[in-house]
Design a protein that fits this description.
Layout (H helix, E strand, L loop, with lengths): L4 E6 L6 E6 L6 E3 L1 E4 L9 H13 L4 E3 L8 H12 L7 E6 L14 H15 L4 E6 L8 H13 L3 E7 L3 H14 L4 E5 L13 H8 L2 E2 L25 H4 L8 H4 L3 H17 L3 H10 L7 E3 L4 H8 L8 H11 L10 H6 L10
Parallel strand pairs: 4-5, 4-11, 5-6, 6-7, 7-8, 8-9, 9-10
Antiparallel strand pairs: 1-2, 2-3
């Protein structure tokens, strides 16, 4: 089940049209673009972070996503101090995550009851709130029994510490196992999945997106601009330098310049985005975001910006929807090329059938 657009609102003097969708199958309503805060306290100082938060809510955004490990808790503290002085506190849907190490001890990591209880209480304290709207498991934990982890989320919902539970970085089988166990126990349903998803990373469409749709989880994709590649700021022929993520570390994570600059598919995708942006008069970032926000099961795309200028450019995509031929062009350029089985060609054919007789 995909998330549903419920309204549009001209929320600012700049005329940005903000759309809203339900948070998965819950009744909570969030803007189709969320503000991610991973840069807060590391790449963006507190003053700049607060300016971004102000600008985001002025534009009609109401969904803020953070995590306990962002800037070692600094991101949550920055958001918490902004919430304390902001009149928007009651309007904001607040999300955070727990699972990764918060200390040096063997119990300072994972999704055990022990760690998550302490992690959640610490997040509540840093954020300065008495409950969190969406609490997400930041990744799968192969050590902790899943029933223990999901039982903790259920207790947190019943205890009023969180409104909803969600997942992040789970594979398809992990997601399905979690949803089946919850259904078996009669616990509160999970509402979202936060994966990496963009024009350069579409493999989640093979298993993860169908599993999310089957279970009514709305998608909250991170890295929607492919680590900056989809903005057009990186040259394929010259190693980046300067104050960008790849300029500071060309081999940074999945967006490594040395790997992606040699990939013909990446070149094709960036060129297709560039052509559509030029024809429309939009930025490349806005086109890439518009492609993603209209994908199946999408609830809210997480924006992550270092600067106010980057955030403003991203927010200008809020009322942009691509034409069918533009979407098709991007789909073709970004097709990850599944093998025939099980995700392409004959494999796809085997998973469907017309409603007709048997042999014919």
């Amino acid at each position: 089940m995909t998330a549903t657009v419920v309204c549009g609102w001209d929320s600012s003097e700049e005329g940005i049209i903000v759309e809203y969708r339900t948070l998965g199958t819950s009744g909570a309503v969030v803007s189709t673009y969320a503000l991610g805060t991973m840069t807060f306290g590391s790449e963006t100082d507190e003053a700049g972070s607060h300016v971004q938060l102000d600008r985001y809510v002025e534009a009609g955004g109401n969904f803020i996503d953070t995590a306990d490990v962002y800037s070692a808790g600094g991101s949550e503290e920055i958001v918490g101090r902004w919430l304390a002085k902001s009149s928007a506190r009651d309007d904001v849907v607040l999300a955070t995550k727990g699972r990764f190490p918060t200390g040096g001890g063997p119990n300072d990591v994972g999704t055990s009851r022990r760690h998550l209880r302490r992690a959640l209480d610490a997040s509540l304290q840093r954020l300065g709130v008495d409950h969190i709207d969406l609490y997400q498991l930041h990744a799968w934990d192969p050590v902790t029994p899943l029933e223990e982890t999901l039982g903790f989320l259920e207790d947190a919902v019943r205890g009023g510490k969180i409104s909803y539970g969600g997942l992040s970085n789970f594979t398809g089988w992990q997601l399905q196992k979690a949803c089946d166990l919850i259904a078996h126990r009669g616990w509160s349903r999970l509402v979202t999945l936060q994966p990496q998803y963009n024009l350069l990373v579409r493999e989640i469409e093979w298993e993860i997106v169908p599993a999310a749709q089957e279970n009514g989880l709305g998608l909250l994709p991170w890295s929607p601009l492919g680590g900056g590649w989809l903005t057009g700021k990186y040259s394929f022929d010259e190693e980046p330098t300067g104050a960008t993520r790849l300029g500071e570390n060309p081999d940074r994570g999945v967006e490594s310049w040395h790997r992606r600059s040699r990939n013909q598919r990446v070149r094709d995708v960036v060129e297709a985005v560039r052509e559509i942006a030029a024809a429309r008069g939009n930025s490349m970032a806005q086109v890439a975001l518009a492609w993603l926000v209209d994908r199946p099961a999408m609830t809210s795309v997480i924006l992550g910006a270092r600067t106010l200028e980057q955030l403003d450019d991203n927010l200008a995509a809020a009322d942009l929807h691509l034409a069918a031929d533009e979407t098709a062009k991007l789909d073709q350029a970004s097709d990850p090329g599944a093998a025939d089985y099980p995700y392409g060609g004959p494999g796809v054919t085997q998973r469907g059938r017309p409603i007709i007789g048997g042999r014919g």
